Fold this sequence. Notes:
By secondary structure, the chain is mainly β. It has one domain (26-95). It is 0% helix and 30% strand. The protein has no helices and 3 strands. It has strands at 32-41, 44-53, 87-95. It is rod-shaped, with a radius of gyration of 25 Å. The model has no long low-confidence stretch (mean pLDDT 84).
Amino acid sequence: MTAFRPVTILDSVDDIVGRNTFYGDGLVNVDLGIYKSFRVYREQSVSLRVQIFNLFNYVQYGFPTTDIANANFGKLLTTNGLYIPRTVQINVRYQF
């Protein structure tokens, strides 16, 4: 007996996999921002800002293919639609 099989006419409601049976891993993002301002001369200053989005670069996988007739059945082929890979921004601002 396998975990997945085609539905037959003899199956009752309890034999069929119900709604929301599979849950994803959820979305995990850790963002980091560091800011430092340096005074250069009198009223002039330089600001440095570093922002890192998805710091640990956790991959958010999508759901496996659920069509039993598909050759890719049970395989993870995509990432979650909300997944964004690690992004780093560096900003320098000169204020006078």
